[in-house]
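A sample copied in:

***
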Amino acid sequence: MDLTQGTRQEKQNRAKKMMLWFGIISLVMSFAGLTSAFIVSSSREDWLTNFILPSAFTYSTLIIVLSSVLLFLAKQAFNNNKSAITTSLLIGAFVLGIAFIYSQIQGFNQIIASGYNFTGATSNITMSYIYVIAVVHIIHVLAGIVCLFVVTINQLNKKYSNENRLGFDIAFNFWHFVDVLWVYLFFFLYLFN
């Protein structure tokens, strides 16, 4: 397929999708750097071994996976022209995105209750890495929540159709990316201690 072919709108849509993929690739590289630094730092003498991730992180993993399932079902409903079901599933995914962030905050509270702060006398390099990795991911989840909110509002206003679905598709891809990214990070942190 020649990328220079097509209408102006088709070219703009391809460019926007390509920008999303460039962004995702840069995020993959950023998190690869963070997890690589985590591995390298694990040889330090003050590194915590056999730490246990907060249980809230397990719940947040289940929450974000469920939100992706709802978003997948929303796309199926959208493809089948079931507007009311699409809207309900989008709202559900949005609410679960907020629940994910709440659960992550509970995880931070559990880390603090264990005696580890991000900085200061009660900080530890291991837990500081966990804070950084989780917070950077939360920032991207917040961006995903904004996308889901915009898509939900547009869906309520009937702005999407099979011919005009770019925003829906971009939000769908980005949300699944942040979901897969968190699952990777969770298992990385869970298994690498």
About this structure: The CA atoms of residues 130 and 189 lie 8 Å apart. DSSP finds five helices and no strands in the chain. The domain at 8-45+53-191 is CATH 1.20.120.80 (Four Helix Bundle (Hemerythrin (Met), subunit A)).
